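#struct-help
A.M.: can someone run this one for me? Single chain, 273 residues.
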Amino acid sequence: MKTITFVSIVLFCTISFSQIRINEVDSDQTGTDVTEFVEILSDSPNFSLEGYLVVFYNGTDDESYKTVDLTGYVTDSEGFFIIGSSATPGVDIAIGTSNTIQNGPDAIAIYQDSASNFPNGTPVTNVNLIDAIVYGTNDDDDPELLAGLGQTVQYDEDLNGNKDTESIQNDGAGSFCVDVPTLRATNACFLSIDGSKTNVFNIYPNPATKGYVDITSKVNGAKTITIFDILGKQVLKTTFYGDRLDISTLNSGVYILKIEQGKSSATKKLVVK
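D.P.: on it. Structure tokens below:
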């Protein structure tokens, strides 16, 4: 039972989400920002957004500058819902023609609450908070927004130096990455449990048969790797540059491999033969 419980928890954490969540944010584009958007994703299709709202926070004073009431709306057949500029393709709620979402350091939050409780100028709060992201475009971190929304990472849309042509995207593993926008589609860096779809980390060979695996990444910097056996015991932890990880000390079996690099992370299943 202990083995089953641990594996189930790890896999569930990798692929599960809140009932609805912030899936993608594009706050900065070339020119006057006429197709900015926030993409919300629900776990189930045609999900009622009754009683939910999205609040936009300004990092200058850490107060709200826009509130969008989602009451009366539902997500689409794939679970998507788009809030953005009127020229954004397929926008569900248009909030202006250009420069509608501030570039940062700012924040966007989903609440299950009454919109009347969030007039413009409302201080940042985590009461009735469902999900949130604090972001910027190569800006210093905003500690008040982070603390007020219970977040630990401020995500940078300019991470790759392409803030005008890339967006911040949920990677499916509790973090966000930056890649080409994927409006109403699977995020470019979505991390599936079997590694079948990912643009951030690739692990091969898996199953591993030669005492090593190569872990490639689109993110710069050192990788921290932690490996657990099926009982939840940590059997290896190391930080290194490069791609090749020596796993020759591991016995044959199934392991859970956690990768952390910069602001990106993933949890994967590793088979050693």
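A.M.: thanks! The first strand starts at residue 20 and ends at 26.
D.P.: also worth noting: The longest helix spans residues 2-15.
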